[in-house]
Amino acid sequence: MFKSKYSNVLTIILIALIILILVIGIILFAKWYKQERTDKMNEKVIGEFMENNKNGQNDENEGNNTTDENEIGEISDITNINTGTDSTSNTGTTKKKKTYLNGFVVIGYIEIPKTGIKYAILETSSIKALEVAVAVAYPSNPKLNTPGNIVIQGHNYRNGKFFSNNKNLSVGDKIKITDTSNKTLTYTIYEIFQTTSENAEYMTRDTGDNIEISLSTCTDDSKGRLVILARV
Predict the structure, then answer these.
(1) pLDDT band at 96 (very low <50, low <70, confident <90, very high)
(2) What pLDDT is stored for residue 55 in this prediction?
(3) Where are the beta strands (DSSP E) in 73-183?
């Protein structure tokens, strides 16, 4: 009798463990699948972005043009990619198409060779925007690769995606930013620090005539912000 009850308890525990392992496996697979879809959508959008802005300038910082085709919602949201349509002004000049990712305007893309990431840069930052790419948190109506400071936010999912590996960057490492004229500038990191989520001084700092960016993401413990300053 005792052995039978003991055996039943072990069977129940075993079944519960199997179910738990299956649930965890499904959750992990769903996260992985969603991120892979996000990365592929970014690759596609970057290709469309370059095509829409193919009449842009060459890289003024390195002498070449970057033409590689290389904030949590449902996967179905991620697949909503479209581009704007050509429009013509009264003077007959054809305007460039706008590129969209999940309904957000794409104003460029970022590459960090050391961490191996390449993502579209969205014009405005929001929870939904940061689920599919990185985005500008400051200033409003940003223009990449121009004098001043552009703050670019990205998630730290601790999985190597988005800005998860920014903690592995060092002073002297390079960051590439391509804008709507297909001009790519290379920025060099000159300062890395952690601060509180409430501190915004690094956003509004005076950079004079320097062309600078600030990358912002949460720390691994989510208690603060990891900020990286870089300039051309």
Answers:
(1) confident
(2) 65
(3) 81-83, 99-101, 104-112, 117-122, 134-138, 148-153, 174-178
